Amino acid sequence: MGKEWHNLVVKTTESLSLTLADLTGCEQGKNSKMGEIDIANLVSHLVVYMVVLLLAISAHEAGHAWMSYKFGDDTAYLLGRVTLNPVKHTDPIGTLLIPILAFLFGAIGGGLGSIPLIGWGIPTPVNQRKWTNYKLANVMVSIAGVLANLILLIIGIAAAKIMISQGFSIYDFFGQSQNPFAILVGNMMTLNLSLFLFNLLPFPPLDGSKILSTFLPASFEPVFAMLEQFGFIILMALIYIGVFRLIITPFLYGLLYILSV
């Protein structure tokens, strides 16, 4: 029985607004402008954003691969997926094109900024028949990806706390600074927080649905099979109507509180 573990990249209004807040109305001397958007500033933010995103996706997929290997399945291991090398996890469309478009649309704002876009990394292949303990492995392999994002989030928070102790403001990480390291740390926190929460939603093909399916009776399998057919449509609808915004907003306030104490 073979399956693939997916990592989906969601464009959220909250995380993008934090990282894009200083892309409009900035005076950069003779730099080229596109409307009110400083193109040079936009490109620099985009580069940092993509570096953090590739790290987050690579860690997520490597987490799935490593945990599956620990439970006896060497499928992903033999394919070289237990690595942080982004080349092994990057899908040209889902990991590069769509996130770049989402970032640019968010910067432009208006109708384009409200379009829900979902990207993805190359799914991690697993062979569940090789697992030594199916139920435990299904939970641990499913949760390994989001735990990798949680670790990166904690690293980002630790780095931010150190920088704050050296004179940085909390809001330097969310749009008030041109310091590239502050931008990187801010993206490290918001992107990994978004990926951690989004992938725990109990809708196929997200990790949360695989965790939930472990504890449900077999009679629910047809329901999950049906949901998986329309998974992307359901997720895009939830993003568009603001459900994910409601979920992530309290956690963003919590992040600000942690940084302030």
Describe the structure.
The protein has 261 residues and is mainly alpha-helical. It has one domain (2-260). It is 62% helix and 7% strand. The chain has helices at 13-20, 39-70, 75-78, 92-108, 110-113, 134-165, 180-198, 207-215, 221-229, 231-240, 243-260, and strands spanning 2-5, 8-10, 33-34, 37-38, 118-120, 124-127. Helix 2 (39-70) packs across helix 7 (180-198) and helix 6 (134-165) packs antiparallel against helix 7. It is globular.
What Rg is obtained from the alpha carbons, in whole angstroms? Answer: 19 Å
Helix count, per DSSP? Answer: 11
> Strand fraction band?
5-15%
Strand element count: 6
Poorly predicted runs are 12-34
Average predicted confidence as pLDDT: 84
Helix share bin: 55-70%
In one word, what is the shape? globular
N-to-C SSE string, H for helix and E for strand: EEHEEHHHHEEHHHHHH
**Biggest sheet statistics:** 2 strands, antiparallel
Secondary-structure-based class equals mainly alpha
Strand order of the largest sheet: 1-6
What count of domains describes the coordinates?
1
How far do the termini sit from each other?
48 Å
